[in-house]
Every structure is written in structure tokens, then in C-alpha cells.
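Page 47, continued from p. 46.
Same chain as before, 346 aa.
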Amino acid sequence: MAAKQLSDISFSVLDLATVVQGTTPAITFQRSLDLAKHAENLGYKRYWLAEHHNMAGVASSATSVLIGYIAGGTSTIRVGSGGVMLPNHAPLIVAEQFGTLASLYPERIDLGLGRAPGTDQLTSMEIRGENFNADHNFPKDILKLQNFFSAENKNGKVRAIPGEGLDIPIWVLGSSTDSARVAAALGLPYAFASHFAPTYFLTAIDLYRKNFQPSENLKSPYVMACVNVVAADTDQEAAKLATSVQQFILGVITGKRGLLQPPIENIDRIWNIYEKESVQQMMKYAFIGGPEKIEKEMQAFIAQTQVDEVMATSHIFEHEARLHSYEVFAEVLSGKKSDKPELAAY
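Result:
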């Protein structure tokens, strides 16, 4: 089989609804819709939102609500969850919510499922209540969801209305080999969180491919990799813009999470050598630079991993710079220079 080229790869967006310093979640949501419209015009395939809780700088906690907002403001791009943290929810409720979304926006909704809490332990206890110590079975809950979505469940005692009989693609999300085994066994597409958990990426996608069992949903393995992207007109400009996401990840490592900070001239002034190494490890799959550097590094990444799709997440302080980053990235992957008019920014 011939090695994949950049033009063979679908490209998509992951949005955490990151709140930047000096703004509010309300402004963040407006900017997310602006970015989604921009991405749609640039040829991005999907726009996913991630479930996180108790983080001042991340406003995507009500994931299904935001998916409806983005889908309602766009017309062709697929919109979905990257992901819904399934142990936080009853499968029936997820089926009803996404059945509602798929009824409103037919053939445009994706359901990506994760098994982590998407938050700290104390907040997880608040979310799950008495179910916190319950034995959650991720594969079994996925099967429950598939049953609720099936037309065959019309005679079941418990039904998902809306949801029943709808074709809503289910994805398994993960950052370990455990999730790879689940996706392979169920014959589902697999999205790996290599943007923050790169350690097991290559091992997990290899395991997934070798153990994949074809299903009614998917005949052959399909791998999506989520990566950090900060693209600009020059390497120097991109490097400076990237200090915002470096500060963001530093906050995750140190437990000092806050709003996304503006770029700084010299980030070495705010971290020590151990923190720097930790941030760099988490950002192993980060593509930072101008078009030529991005293209060279992305081609090497595709050649090594043979992924089917790349999902870019970009924590960039200035909204216009973020829009431009996604434009540069799309041009690199598609080989086409954008001639789209500028969209309104907030």
C-alpha cells in the first residue's frame, strides 16, 4: 500500500472553548462559532468539542449544548463531541441528547466517547454523586448506546426518543492501550489524544489496527490523531504565539490552571528545567511554525503513523491569529491557497 500524502488526510478541529484572559465564556462561544464557520469554508471535515469540568479556562462543560449551537450556526461541517465522558452520564440520556441533535442536524452529528472523568476527583464526585464508586463498564455502556440507537429496539421496554433508528457515528476516544482494545473489539473508529498524552500513541494505534474486528459500522481500521497546531506566516511568529499554549499546559502540570494567557517574549523566565521538560513531553506532537516547517513535520508525522485524519487544537490568544493558524494549516494539508474572505471576529 502506498504511503499516505498530506492531501490524502482529512483534517478537523478540536475546540475546548478556551477562555482567554480578559474575556468571558459568552465571548468564547461567539468566537467558537466564528471559528467553526471559518473552518467550514476552509474545508475542515469536523468540529468537535471536548467535555471538561471545573476549569476556569475551559468552557466546554455543557458539551451537547455547545454542539447544537455550533451546528445551528453552520451548514455542512460535521459537529460532535471529542468527547462526551460516558461514565459521567447515563447512556440513555446521551442517546436522547444526541438523538435530538441528529434530528435537528441530520447526517452532521458525531458522538465521540471517552472513559475519563474530564476533571479532578472532587469534581467527579459532584458529577456522579452516589455513582462515584460504581463499577462503570465502558464497553458495556457503548453497547447500550448502540442498542438505543438501533431500529431493532422499537419493541424494547426502554427506548431513546429521539435517537432510535438514527445513524449517529460512534467513536472511541482514548489516551491508552485500553481504549485501543475497546475500539478494535467493537469495530469503531479510534481517536487518540496525542495532543496531551503522547506516550502510548504509537503503541495504541498499532494495537488497534492489529486487533480490529470489522463491524457493520466500519469495515477497516480508522485512526484519527489529535495534535497541537500553532501555524503562522513565519516560524518566529508561530514560536511566540505558542507560548500561550505552553503556559496553558504548564498550568495543567503545576495545578495552577487559569485563563489562557497572552504570548510572551521569553518563556524560559517562567518555568524551570523540569517543568520545561514536562511541557515538551506533553507537546511531543505539536506542530509550530510557518507553512514550510508545518508541511515538512506533518509529512513526516503522516509517513510514520499513517493516520487517516488529523484533528488540530490551537490554543492561541488572539482570535485573528487563531483563525489564521487554521487557515495556514488547511492550506498545508490541502495544498490549496485560501481565497476566502475574512470573517467577522469578536
